[in-house]
Amino acid sequence: MLHRNMSMQMYLVGGAVRDALLGLPVQDRDWVAVGADPQALLDAGYLPVGKDFPVFLHPKTHEEVALARTERKTGSGYRGFQVHAAPDVTLEQDLARRDLTINAMAQAEDGSLVDPYGGQRDLQARVLRHVSQAFVEDPVRILRLARFAARFSDFSVAPETMTLMQEMVNNGEVDALVPERVWQEMSRGLMEDRPSRMIEVLRECGALARLAPALDRLFGVPQPPVHHPEVDTGAHLLLVLDQCARVQAPLTVRFAALCHDLGKGDTPEADWPRHPGHDARGVPLTEALSAHWRVPTECRDLAVLVAREHIHLHSSLGFSPEARLRLLERCDALRRPDRFKEMLLACECDVRGRTGMENRDYPQRPWMLQSLAAVLAVDTAAISAQALAAGRKGPAIGQAIHLARLNALRAMEPVQSM
């Protein structure tokens, strides 16, 4: 660190300390300055950033340094806080405002560990536990804990912490969360190694029903056992999400997996367990959830396509060349081949996200990729030139291209020979 006032002490805090103790790679290193004011850090050469409370960057490493601070609840939601940062704030006071004990440890510059709230003990016991009653003051902490449950999937949630989260949901604190913050945490949780754990924790505390009621409705809804040995639609969803993680699918695919069966939550009980038409019913529900969370366009668009077309893609082995071409055109696969590949990956995870079917073959994926390649190989420029030379125009050229693409699909070997 830089030369500074001798009364100022620097401590490595948070995730860097936690991950080092777990033997994991340390991605980001955040520091807390104790016994300092903003001028002391400026005098030491640190660069000021941030508006809500004094945060600085090391001029060489660009690691973040925050003044030790306390927080006092002044309003609803996660923004309703008054921050106090001053030289008289102790390290223990700063750590007390943090969410979980495993994130409330610090390391002095001499390497010694400061652990006033039992974080190391909870790391060893594999427990996610709140630091103090102040946990209830910030609803984002529910999302963060659920995300950590997805990252550290062998950790359990302390019963008293789950009780606090349930109280927060019942008191309406979760309703104060803004969409951008919900999506920020949910998207990060979806990208963890066990995204199913995030959904399980949110459901157990009641937050899922507030944040995404269409998702919550899937649990307890039966499916045909012959296709779904796990039977429960919600259980299937969790398996599909973990399949996405298993193949390291991108966020677009994982969000599509999250939404692919939303229509089953609105199936009339008289139509259980078959769910006819759930694909079409899922489209507006996917659009609504995407709008509610303000999901990025590429995530929303893929999710809508998968919700609408996953049944057709599952059935594509038996499709005629005409039906396959219509499917490719509906999915805009000719213009967006990479997105179509993501659709197929989401569908493969859907099929493998079933009890005992984790390694099941999904020949529809290579078959439809082969179909797409055959169509894309058609030389549309040459066909257009020939048609123009023959005096054909407009729709006639389009018909010639369509026929050439159809013939390319007809020339493919039957799927049984794959």
Automatic annotation (TrEMBL):
Q: Which cofactor does it need?
A: Mg(2+); Ni(2+)
Q: What subunit structure does UniProt give?
A: Monomer. Can also form homodimers and oligomers.
Q: Which gene encodes it?
A: cca
- Quote the protein name from its UniProt record: Multifunctional CCA protein
Q: Which residues bind Mg(2+)?
A: 28, 30
Species this protein is from: Roseateles depolymerans
User: What does the UniProt keyword field contain?
Assistant: ATP-binding, Hydrolase, Magnesium, Metal-binding, Multifunctional enzyme, Nickel, Nucleotide-binding, Nucleotidyltransferase, RNA repair, RNA-binding, Transferase, tRNA processing
Which reaction equations make up its catalytic activity?
a tRNA precursor + 2 CTP + ATP = a tRNA with a 3' CCA end + 3 diphosphate; a tRNA with a 3' CCA end + 2 CTP + ATP = a tRNA with a 3' CCACCA end + 3 diphosphate
UniProt superkingdom: Bacteria
Further information in the entry reads:
A single active site specifically recognizes both ATP and CTP and is responsible for their addition.
**According to the record, how does the cofactor bind?**
Magnesium is required for nucleotidyltransferase activity. Nickel for phosphatase activity.
